Amino acid sequence: MIADKLKNGVNSVGSFFNKTLSIAEMEVRKLRHDPTELITRAVQPALWLLVFGEVFTRVHIISTGNLSYLSFLTPGILAQSVLFIAIFYGIAVIWERDLGVLHKFLVSPTPRPALVLGKALSAGVRALSQVAIIFILAVFIGVGINWNPIDLTLVVVVALLASALFSTFSLIIASLVKTRERFMGVGQILTMPLFFASNAIYPLSMMPSWLQIVARVNPLTYAVDAMRGLMITGGVSTYGVGYDLLVLFVIMIALVLIGAKLYPRVVI
């Protein structure tokens, strides 16, 4: 009896992850129809590093310890790129509703958490292109990159987690607002506060005390902190990479569960 229950549990878990990966694969295949999206997404981080980063490196108004400002900024811009890709991912859900695709998902036997997690993972795959682009730009402008294979792998993990987290958050917003126009408005309102209320472009110590509190509950802060400790030579993680990963993972799982509850509301 116990053996049968264990076997059924393993089969259920295996089925859940198979369905999750199927949804993720289906979403990733869409990139074949418009791969230029990944290239155009590189323009904004390039401007931040090549213009903003180079200028502020020369004016020396932001204290970054032993790191040059460009080295300090690079992980922040990578996290920003991941955020900007993921935060508007929910609009695809509204398009799917309007085209009738979403109804097919909801009547399928696929569990709602698998639908949400699969879409989150596909957003993470899109973020990998940003990792490659930022690393190429960083080498071009002379940023000291830590090429340790384990650390590089963890940078990819952080990017995947952060992208999955913010894309799920985006899906939750889409489930609540239900229209493309409202979604775009809310998305634009959220992106800048999330970015500027983090440690992406300046240390937390420079912020007023109330903003430091906001930054510490901002998931982007932990993504930047982990990336800074992993990808930059001499970079240090303030909270510890393990703690950063744990925070991102816990928040992502919580958002997936919330998204699974709200996902059917998109069609109402």
**Beta content:** under 5%
Shape: globular
Derived from helix and strand composition plus strand pairing, the structural class reads mainly alpha
Oligomer: single chain
Give the CA-CA distance, first to last residue: 42 Å
Helix content: over 70%
As residue ranges, the low-confidence spans are 3-11
The whole-angstrom Rg is 19 Å
Number of domains in the coordinates?
1
Average pLDDT, to the nearest integer? 80
Could you give the order of the helices and strands?
HHHHHHHHHHHH
Largest sheet: none
User: Total number of helical segments?
Assistant: 12
- Beta-strand segment tally: 0
Describe it:
- The chain has 268 residues and is mostly helical.
- The protein has one domain.
- Helix content is 76%, strand content 0%.
- The protein contains twelve helices and no strands.
- It has helices at residues 2-29, 36-40, 43-59, 69-87, 91-99, 101-107, 112-140, 149-177, 180-196, 209-216, 219-231, 241-262.
- The chain is globular.
Blueprint (SSEs and pairs):
Elements: H1 2-29, H2 36-40, H3 43-59, H4 69-87, H5 91-99, H6 101-107, H7 112-140, H8 149-177, H9 180-196, H10 209-216, H11 219-231, H12 241-262
Helix pairs in contact: 1-7, 3-4, 4-7, 4-8, 4-9, 4-11, 7-8, 7-12, 8-9, 8-11, 8-12, 11-12
Based on the model shown, name its key terms:
mainly alpha, 12 helices, globular
How do you describe this structure in short?
With 268 residues, the protein is an all-alpha fold.
